[in-house]
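Sanity check

After download, print the first record. It should look like this:
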Amino acid sequence: MAKKQHGPGNMPFPGLPGKLMDLSLLSCSASRPATVGKKLPPLQQSMKIEGGQREGHPNEIKALLTFALRDQKDDADGFQIIGKFGVTFKNAELPFSEEEVETIVKRVSVLVVWPYWREFVQSTTTRMGLPPLRVPLINPMYLSLETIKAPKRKRIGKPQKTDS
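Expected structure tokens:
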């Protein structure tokens, strides 16, 4: 018997019906003032999530996630990186319940898109002639249906080698 492959179009999530069918970067932008040297100003990150069942398609959920990193000064000409991602989930068997829709839109879609956002920020800052900016990993424990936030972390030097 052939082993089932996972990937877009066949990626189940434990405890939830449905599969991830599509993940796309829909739009992006990046800008930096010419005066920014090799050190970035303090930045703030934001996230906007929209989505739900597609009208007339109760077995399909679409989510739009917009992530932004901006200069804290909120200057229109300041440093910023923005990425808008689209995610589609489908369930072949039954329509999604309201609870499943909310969980998939507000939690699962963030967990799916976050690694792509991290890579986008890191590669974009490098292409802007800046040191790579590393967005922290997201901890699923900090994702709730009321508020979505990433924990604040201090960047500590290189990991210490341990004797094995």
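If your output differs, re-run the checksum step. Summary of this record's structure: Residues 44 and 74 are 9 Å apart (CA to CA).
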